[in-house]
Amino acid sequence: MTAPTRSEPQLTTAPPPPVRRDRMVQAYVLAVIVSAAGDTVFAIGLAWTAVHLFSPGLAGFVLGVEMLPQAICTLLGGVIADRYDTRRVMMLGELARVVVLVAAAMCWQSGLHAGAVLFAVAICFGTVSGLSGPAARTLVRQLVRTDDLVTVSGWAQTGARLARLLGAPLGAIVIHWGFGFSMLADALTFLVVLLVLRLVVHTRFRLPRTRQETVRQSLRSCWDYIRGSEVARIFLLGLAALNVFVTPVMSVGVALRVSQSHWGSGWLGASEAIFAIGAIVGSVVGTKWQGDYLPRRSFRLLILQGIGLTAVGMPTRVGLVIGMTIVGVTAGLASVWLSGSFQRVIAPSHLGRVGSVSNLGDLVLIPASTPIFGLLAGASSVLTATTACGLAMAALCAVFALNPQIRQLR
Q1: 164 near 36, Cβ under 8 Å?
Q2: Total H helices, total E strands in the chain
Q3: C-alpha dihedral over 73, 349, 23, 334, to 10 degrees?
């Protein structure tokens, strides 16, 4: 059996400089980080406004409705990503977000504090994310060498986690001025990305385009590629496991453990901070410490993460702290390595479409797995539910780590 090889797209310009001296890539990553902070400001403003205007059920629907159009459009977005110029697709997406937010802010500031405004923004955002998001996930593949993909992935993920930490208190401040200002702040960050894409970024590597295929043929080609590539299937399942098993424990399991143990809400905040700090540390270490056989090392780490998920459900504060630390550090490390390796091993001609399949899996599986986790915890115990997630994660990733093709993948 031959080991899978990395695919290097065709270079169309002068060779890029070493990535740590590549000002264009650094400017783009910084713009994306600023946009992530703006998204956090907007998300906090939206949540605060929804819970104060609507019933809990309707507020939850407002906060979750964006996922529906995103799920519907993401496969088409993958086709667009592999067919059209990436920068133009991204610029249109950023421009659409700016227009939507500015129009909504004007309506809001004029006194139209209606649910229709929030629904319209959420639906438009979901649609734009579905159509342009897959293209955004292919851009770095067109900017840097194959060997630099993990480094840039680490920068982006570390920055995004820091942006969420910093954006949260900023969002709490901005919402006191009104939800209109939250929308304008987010629109400004999208404008920053748009300007950087227009004035600074230019692609260096050419990805194959599929303009001669119909949408149906393009989707069929994606399915045939996934069906014929065991490595692609493992990466799709592995990236899904990072969210499907971790998200229910983080969103429901921790809250249930703290509540049932009567530790006070401070422990809920502390556990989130422990995870965030651990993930940032993991992302930084993953960026600096790379080497060979990253996919195999990632899946081995995720076996350890399964142990951490189990520990979160233990009825002791020590267990919670240890569990959240393990989950945070391993998530930071593995997500950097797997995301960069994903772009290395997936065929450049199918990168947008396969990425959209991965995103669709998250959009479908996470909303399904979270209530199942809650039902299991309610019918048995929190520890039983976290153990089920942990064992499933560990078993699945052990199988992946032992796969012959993954073991040979450098």
Answers
A1: yes
A2: 17, 2
A3: 70
- Asked whether 145 and 16 are in contact (CB, 8 A), the reply is yes
Q: Give the up-direction half-sphere exposure of residue 201: CA atoms within 13 A in the CB hemisphere.
A: 30
pLDDT one-digit tens code per residue, 37-85: 998 888 888 888 887 777 666 776 777 788 889 999 999 999 999 999 9
Domains annotated on the chain, with CATH: 16-207 (1.20.1250.20), 221-408 (1.20.1250.20)
Residue 57's CB is within 10 A of a number of other CB atoms, namely 8
| Residues in the chain, total | 410
Distances (CA, A) of 284 to 100, 150, 329: 35, 11, 10
β-bridge pairing 205-206 and 10-11: antiparallel
Question: Smallest Cα–Cα separation from 388: which of 321, 311, 323, 310?
Answer: 310
HEC-encoded secondary structure of 320-375: HHHHHHHHHHHHHHHHHHHHHHHHHHCCHHHHHHHHHHHHHHHHHHHHHHHHHHHH
CA–CA distance, 392 with 395 (Å, rounded to integer): 5
Q: What is the DSSP letter of 11?
A: E
Measured CA to CA, the distance from residue 38 to residue 194 in angstroms comes to 14
How many whole angstroms separate alpha carbon 42 and alpha carbon 65?
A: 15
- pTM score, whole prediction: 0.85
Cα–Cα distance measured from residue 379 to residue 259, given in angstroms and rounded to the nearest whole number: 16
Q: How many Cα neighbours within 13 Å face the side chain of 303?
A: 12
Digit-coded pLDDT (tens) for 397-407 = 898 888 888 87
Lookup: tokens for 198: 């227009």
